[in-house]
Design brief:
Strand order of the largest sheet: 1-5-6-4-2-3
Helix content: 40-55%
Largest sheet: 6 strands, mixed
Number of strands: 10
Structural class: alpha+beta
Shape: globular
Strand content: 5-15%
Number of helices: 10
């Protein structure tokens, strides 16, 4: 098993901000990029810690959450400020992180009968108030980390629960298909996190597929920013269009696939294509997205048929096989076939 350093805000967006005419915005973006580069290098040089599993049958599945406070520093994990079962603190950021860890645990347990992101009761750890004005959140292979944002472009990264779900879902991928964080497999890694991050939000709100906004990071931008979220699964490429941020570059079809050496081969950009396929399948089926479309994606991730280098076509083919295995030749397989065809990804 390998682990990677995965951030919610893509490097291309931070690089754009680093070239801003606003000195404060540019300085914060550069500082965030430097911190991310250091963390990425550190992750490459280390081995992920082995999961601390709960013995089968030892106790009912329940979350085991711990939230730490970095107090503006970068040493992890920081001081412990809230543990499982403790009352809310006076720090709203701590409480949101704690609740978001719980919301993600609930989705995996109640919708998919999975005990934590590793399936074996992995404790869920988070650190808040990381660095000064840090404009990102990340999964480092062992825990979640949240910045406070700069209050110019980004607000507190614990505000959108789907950001928390997204980053923890990188851990789910780490413990299942372990998709390599490069090119199409990396874009699938990012897309799976967006899928389950969105499902965490929808499950918590009790929303059906047609009620959901299908936005990733809605509420993260400062009100002055011309944008609704970091990404849109419903309409890739429309999440933001701002003088400082630039325009959302995500494609929603293979005709517009972006070939680039940046961002590990465009993992945050091209994820828009499988993201849109999931949205189309979920809305075609209707009802709660985690019940059928989400179950198919979960079956693919846990079925043992994917390799770390899985490409879009292979993943799409696997979703068709998973739909047939679970539901037979019904509406589910037709919705999946139709969704992948709509984004230009072959399924055979």
């Amino acid at each position: 098993m390998t682990s990677v350093f995965c951030t919610i805000v893509p490097p291309h967006l931070l690089e754009h901000l680093a070239a801003s005419d606003n000195p404060a915005v540019a300085a914060t973006a550069r500082r965030t990029l430097v911190a991310d580069a250091a963390n990425r290098t550190g992750r490459l040089l280390s081995r992920p810690a082995a999961p601390t599993a709960v013995a089968p049958g030892a106790e009912p599945a329940r979350p085991r959450r711990t939230v730490h406070d970095a107090q503006g520093a970068t040493e992890l994990p920081g001081i412990t400020v809230r543990e499982e079962g403790q009352e809310a603190t006076g720090d709203a950021t701590v409480n949101r992180a704690y609740a978001g860890l719980g919301a993600t645990f609930d989705l995996f347990l109640k919708a998919f009968q999975r005990d934590s992101i590793d399936g074996a009761g992995l404790p869920l750890l988070a650190t808040v108030h990381y660095d000064r004005n840090y404009g990102n959140a990340f999964w480092n292979g062992e825990q979640m980390v949240f910045g406070d944002g700069d209050d110019e472009i980004f607000l507190d990264f614990t505000l959108p629960v789907d950001v928390i779900g997204h980053e923890l879902a990188h851990g789910f991928t780490q413990y299942t298909a372990n998709l390599e964080y490069f090119s199409q497999s990396g874009a699938l890694n990012e897309s799976v996190s967006d899928v389950f991050g969105s499902l965490v939000k929808q499950y918590g709100l009790g929303q059906s597929a047609d009620q959901a906004d299908w936005l990733i990071g809605e509420g993260l931008f400062h009100p002055n920013v011309q944008g609704t979220a970091l990404r849109s699964m419903k309409a890739p490429g429309t999440a933001y269009d701002d003088d400082v941020l630039g325009k959302d570059p995500q494609p929603g079809h293979m005709d517009d696939y972006v070939r680039t050496s940046r961002d590990n081969g465009g993992v945050h950009i091209n994820s828009g294509i499988p993201n849109h396929a999931f949205y189309l399948a979920a809305t075609e089926l209707g009802g709660k997205a985690w019940e059928r479309a989400g179950q198919i994606w979960y079956d693919v991730m846990t079925g043992g048929t994917l390799t770390p280098e899985t490409r879009f076509t292979e993943f799409a083919t696997a979703t068709v096989a998973a739909a047939k295995a679970r539901y037979g030749d019904g509406a589910e397989i037709q919705a999946v076939l139709k969704a992948w065809a709509a984004v230009g990804v072959p399924t055979d």
